[in-house]
Every structure is written in structure tokens, then in C-alpha cells.
Amino acid sequence: QVQLDESGGGLVQAGDSLRLSCAASGRTFSNYAMGWFRQAPGKEREFVAAINWSGGIVYYADSVKGRFTISRDNAKNTVYLQMNSLKPEDTAVYYCAFRGGLGTYRRIGDYDYWGQGTQVTVSS
What we know:
The chain is mainly beta. It has strands at 2-7, 10-13, 18-26, 32-39, 46-51, 58-60, 68-73, 78-83, 92-100, 113-114, 118-123. It is globular and about 45 Å long. The model has no long low-confidence stretch (mean pLDDT 96).
């Protein structure tokens, strides 16, 4: 089993920044991919960003491209999501996700482990 511990959410104003962190623990993998998803009230969970095992390949949803940056520190088994120029429509519960492998994954079904979620609220 892999446990994912997210942190960094909060209440901010439009235009502000936040950095989310997700630390993985438990079962070890030689290579693993991680991703961030979000779910707003009344909406389905959606892809935000993903990163491969080395950090050399990243994908973003069009809605966050140019504003959000995903990165990872393999020594700490941690992935980050730097969110800049936040908008009210970014308000959601943000979830990190984990799976073993060498690829970069954008679908919910691609991931095996999920964090508990952290709330991000952006006021206008």
C-alpha cells in the first residue's frame, strides 16, 4: 500500500499563489508517476497535472497551463503543485494520485492510490 499525505490548501484571493505538496510513503517503487486532480462542488473529478518518474515529462490541463507547475523531489518522495494567478474557478478539492511505472498518466483510472484531498478556495 501507498499512503499519500497532501498539504498546502487554503483560502486565498484571486491572483494569489499556493503550493500544494503530496508526500508518498509505504510501499516502495523503483519508478512511479504522480498526478494532481481536482473536484469542484457538483462537478466530476478532473485532471490538472501529471509528472513522470524523472520529472522530465509533464502534462497540464488547458485550464491551468501557464499558471500551474508540477514538480517532484524523489529524495523526499514528494510531488508539488505550484499554483499562481489563482482564479475563483480553481476552487476545488485537490487530490494527488500515484501509480508505479515509467509513463505519464492523465486519466483517473490510470492511478492506483489517492490522497484524501486538500481544499483550495479562491475568493474573487
